[in-house]
Amino acid sequence: MRQFDHEKLIVYQRAIEFVAWASNLLDNVPRKYAANDQLDRASTSIPLNIAEGNGKFTAKDRCRFFDIARGSTLESAACLDVLVAKNLIERDVALEGKQMLLDTVSMLIGLIRANDSEREV
Asked: What domains does the chain contain, in order, with CATH numbers?
């Protein structure tokens, strides 16, 4: 089966896994909380920006979208902290999600450095 180039990236695959994980988590968090919507949007932004960035022709454009994906990854981690602070999820659940996000951030930093060796991340 043919695939888009971004679908071959492990970081994209992990981002999709996190979206599924977060979606299951949010099924148990009332929608009235802003963190519910924010985590949904931030987690969705990660693979979308990886895909778009991977399709760009210049390193600068690719890095811009990988930077946005990295920011959305950090935002997702903060949303998990907020959900814990509001006693909407357990700390160990948040830590599970944050471990997934740490791996994603590491891979995104690798992609950014591979595309722009002079960049400090």
From this structure: 5-115 (1.20.1440.60)
For the residues of 58-113, what is the DSSP string, one character each?
A: SHHHHHHHHHHHHHHHHHHHHHHHHHHHTTSS-HHHHHHHHHHHHHHHHHHHHHHH
For residue 53 the two structure tokens come to 């960035």
| pLDDT for position 79 | 97
- pLDDT tens-place string over residues 81-116: 999 999 999 999 999 999 999 999 999 999 999 998
Two tokens, residue 106: 């590491």
The answer to whether the beta carbons of residues 45 and 4 sit under 8 Å apart is no
CA-based end-to-end distance of the chain: 35
Is pLDDT at 121 greater than 70 in this prediction? no
Unique residue bearing structure tokens 């679908």: 7
